[in-house]
Specification:
Length: 432
């Protein structure tokens, strides 16, 4: 098959919040020889994208600009795409993907995008760019949405889930190294979270051999300065068949082999950003693995609420006791612990708020730090159209105290304002 012409180029808006998505997508493109001569530009800043496209257009006949974004970025992306389309007219093809685009493809097309990649993008982006190059029919390509020539909305259907081993976690030719996705998919269908609706409920693990291959590449590049971080919905679930019953033997085998590659001077992180840990999976054995192999002095768990009623309404599938136990065990292992809470979850009443406040106080007294969030409705989740109200004064008073003492942190204020805007959009599907 012919190679894509050097006259064509892909420009990715490589914004800091979205680099992991593009690492995976560009890594996938590099696996196909069709793209051997394909020019890819990574642009990190808004102004650089707005004004830099002018020079890129001079050097290429066909330009595709790719965006991947969260719902929290919706207004920023709308302003940017509007500006670009006004400035460059129809000389550029615009493709969107990521969590928001997957959950709200029609809304994203209405922003001005030509195509939306729905769900996992590795296989889809390869086939879509080939069809763009060849001018082929798009309706036969699974995993995309677009508006056809008759002004009809077309969604071509869901694509079969990929095998992570088939694609690298980051680009090798273009050298954009970073965290390695080791697991995709989550069996816990929490009603506020998009992950299971985008990636499925059956966990898929990258093999130990594949992970170690890319760890070796990282180490060859960085040497003793290598930092190893994982992308996974639940850091202790690696190797688990169902994502619920842990397979710590396999997890330890992975960690042991990684440590053998990177040595003692490089750093390995487990249970910290960009992944967290479920509270019921915090055990003596799982914490022992952190102490034995990892370099982080803390872990992050998702509690979300101190009310069992709210945990059940959210479909969290763990108990209040699991949260207390996770903090107790972590502190006993001389590790710090950050505990996520979400203020204003749907169905929450004053009794639930008081229970959560009581938990935050008690956990902070035990040495935990509260990571405060405001509930944000996200497309394609059961809570997508749930009502959003301002954070209650009870929460505000308590979290202010905890922050002043160094026992809490988080962007809950910013999220509170954003959540109100998003909730309005989710009901009207109009940006205002």
């Amino acid at each position: 098959m012919k190679n894509l012409s050097k006259d064509s180029a892909l420009v990715v808006y490589y914004y800091k919040n979205n680099i992991y998505s593009f690492n995976a997508l560009v890594g996938a493109l590099e696996t196909d020889s069709y793209f051997d001569d394909f020019n890819i530009y990574f642009i990190k800043k808004k102004d650089e994208l707005i004004y830099g496209l002018k020079d890129i257009i001079k050097n290429h006949k066909s330009i595709i600009v790719g965006f991947s974004f969260f719902t929290s970025q919706l207004w920023e992306i709308y302003d940017l795409i509007s500006l670009l389309k006004n400035k460059y007219k129809d000389s550029i093809l615009y493709i969107a993907g990521g969590p928001h685009a997957t959950g709200d493809p029609l809304g994203v097309l209405k922003l001005g995008f030509d195509f939306v990649v729905v769900g996992e993008g590795e296989e889809t982006i390869i086939e879509l760019l080939k069809k763009v190059d060849l001018g082929s029919d798009y309706e036969s390509l699974k995993g995309i949405a677009f508006i056809n020539d008759s002004n009809e909305y077309i969604f071509t259907g869901k694509r079969v889930a990929i095998d992570l081993d088939d694609y690298p976690p980051f680009p090798l030719k273009n050298q954009r190294f970073g965290a390695i996705e080791i697991t995709r998919g989550c069996p816990y269908v929490c009603y506020f979270c998009q992950t299971p609706y985008i990636s499925g409920t059956k966990p898929r693990h990258r093999s130990i051999e594949s992970i170690c291959k890319y760890i070796q590449i990282l180490y060859n590049h960085y040497g003793d300065l290598t930092d190893v971080r994982f992308i996974t919905p639940n850091a202790f679930s690696y190797g688990s068949l169902d994502g619920k019953v842990l397979n710590l033997t396999k997890l330890e085998n992975l960690l042991k082999k990684i440590r053998g590659i990177i040595g003692k001077k490089s750093r390995l992180f487990l249970g910290t950003f960009p992944s967290e840990v479920r509270p019921e999976h915090v055990t003596n054995n799982s914490l022992d693995l952190v102490l034995k192999y990892a370099d982080n002095d803390n872990i992050t768990i998702g509690a979300q609420s101190g009310s069992q009623r709210i945990l059940d309404l959210c479909h969290r599938d763990h108990t209040v006791e699991d949260i207390y136990n996770a903090v107790k065990l972590t502190v006993e292992h001389n590790l710090k612990i950050n505990v996520d809470f979400i203020f204003g979850l749907p169905g929450e009443n004053e009794e639930d708020i008081l229970l959560t406040i009581s938990m935050m106080r008690e956990l902070s007294n035990k040495g935990a730090r509260v990571h405060a969030h405001s509930f944000i409705p996200l497309p394609q989740t059961p809570f997508a159209k749930a009502p959003v109200n301002r954070v209650k004064d009870l929460y505000k008073k308590e979290i202010t105290k905890l922050i002043s003492k160094g026992f809490a942190f988080g962007d809950w204020k910013k999220q509170e304002k954003l959540a109100i805007k998003i909730a309005k959009y989710m009901k009207t599907m109009k940006l205002e």
